[in-house]
Specification:
single chain, alpha/beta
Length: 444
């Protein structure tokens, strides 16, 4: 085992190892522990860490990641999200979709953000713990400044108004709702407190009685979402978080929506980028993912010239010389060599928790992993770039589990690769099609 793999897998806790292995066995991207699998991402680390530091120091960052299906965009964003959490960022991953999260309705994007909000200490939705921690911070700051217990409510109110003064210029109802939430809590009205917090999170259809009780009206709209995001960032930073890392995943789905909705969504993305670059959102790191067709095609970014200009990046040079500091970076996808490297890393991680680690390493040696990678890639029409998910699923569930459980199991003798269409994604199924007539086309 190489020193690099030993460093990554040698001191992993049993729980962390199990979480990663269980996810791969299901054919899923693990929610955490992705640094263990980060093959080939070292070239991005220095530039991305510098950008996270920029956001942590009060700046704001926008980044676009491009890659074909299967190139590892979801893995990349979760890996970077883990790095952000280690810097005490809050994190939210949002799947863009026409029905659930249309990008041209930023109030819906904000709502999904609060629903998916997570921190190193709290799973989604972490909105309530974050807000409660903020009020605790205000109380501690007031007491540290010499406030007496009987004056604490008034001093907390003064600090709330001062720290949300900029936010209140654009979204005064954000501060109003926070005051109402605190009042409801202190009076023991949990129902109103929960309803007001839901309204703060952008949820529609909150009971009118709760809204009246705290002095807010209506539901959040597209333009109000910017002010609420600004308010959330203030609350996060005041409660000890360095910033907020947000992923808008699969924005290429915009290519398949009606032309009017697509144009609105592209303009909303342009507007969001401009707001990030204007400095309105200190502490925000916003990342979007998409396919090359989205960034280069006439049904995507190129449809809106101002957006295309903001995202323009030169990819005509050798990928080895891509600039990780550019506004847009590309993931080259897997090769056979990088797939084998990932497979050996997983084998070593698995072996460290196996009953007989030596046998696992000996039976599932590097040569066998290379053979399995070639077989999976071949079954997918030679498209190695879309093979990682199925390759790791087969390696863990069909090979490593059996070697670990059956003393006489030898994959070279007792295992032949099989892949059924019902375990494949649409992209994998299309790659495995025998000829072009079998490929499913996504036509408008």
């Amino acid at each position: 085992m190489s020193n690099d793999r030993l460093e990554r897998t040698g001191s992993v806790s049993a729980a962390r190892r199990r979480e990663v292995i269980d996810a791969l066995r299901r054919g899923a991207v693990p929610e955490s522990g992705l640094d263990l699998l980060a093959t080939g991402l070292g070239r991005f680390e220095e530039a991305l860490d510098a950008e996270l530091d920029t956001a942590a120091s009060g700046g704001s960052v926008f980044k676009a990641v491009r890659g074909e299906y299967g190139s590892g965009k979801t893995f990349f964003t979760r890996w970077l999200g883990e790095r952000a959490k280690r810097r005490n960022f809050a994190v939210a991953e949002i799947q863009v979709s026409e029905t659930e999260t249309p990008l041209h309705k930023l109030e819906t994007v904000y709502r999904r953000l609060t629903e998916r909000l997570t921190t190193s200490g709290f799973p989604p939705s972490a909105l309530r713990p974050v807000v409660d921690a903020w009020f605790y911070t205000l109380e501690e700051d007031a007491l540290s400044a010499g406030a007496a217990e009987e004056d604490l409510p008034r001093e907390v109110e003064r600090l709330l108004a001062a720290r949300l003064s900029e936010v209140s210029r654009h979204a005064p109802s954000f501060a109003t709702a926070l005051r109402g939430y605190r009042t409801a809590l202190t009076s023991g009205d949990e129902g109103t407190a929960a309803a007001v917090l839901a309204w703060l999170g952008g949820q529609p259809h909150v009971a009118a009685s709760a809204r009246r009780a705290v002095g807010v009206r209506g539901d959040l709209d597209h333009f109000g979402a910017f002010g609420f995001l600004q308010g959330l960032l203030t609350v996060l930073r005041d409660s000890g978080h360095k910033g907020l890392f947000v992923v808008l995943d699969e924005v290429e789905t915009l290519q398949r929506v009606r032309s009017d909705a697509r144009d609105k969504a592209l303009n909303a993305l342009r507007q969001l980028i401009d707001e990030v670059h204007s400095g309105r959102f200190p502490g925000l790191y916003l990342l979007i993912t998409g396919t090359p067709a989205f960034f280069e095609g006439q049904q995507g970014v190129q449809r809106l010239a101002p957006l295309a200009q903001r995202l323009a990046t030169d990819f005509t040079t050798d990928p080895r010389f891509d600039n990780p500091r550019a506004v847009q970076v590309r993931l080259p996808g897997f090769t056979h060599a990088s797939l084998v490297g990932l497979g050996t890393t997983i084998r070593d991680l698995y072996a460290d928790g196996a009953g007989d680690s030596g046998r696992v390493r000996a039976v599932v040696d590097d040569a066998y992993i290379s053979e399995l990678a070639a077989a999976v890639g071949g079954a997918l029409g030679g498209r190695v770039g879309v093979a990682p998910r199925l390759f790791l699923k087969k390696l863990v569930g069909d090979v490593l589990d059996r070697v670990d459980q059956f003393d006489d199991f030898d994959p070279r003798q007792h295992y032949a690769l099989t892949m059924s269409s019902n375990e494949m994604s649409d992209i994998e199924r299309n790659a495995a099609a025998a000829d072009a007539d079998e490929i499913e086309l996504d036509l408008p």
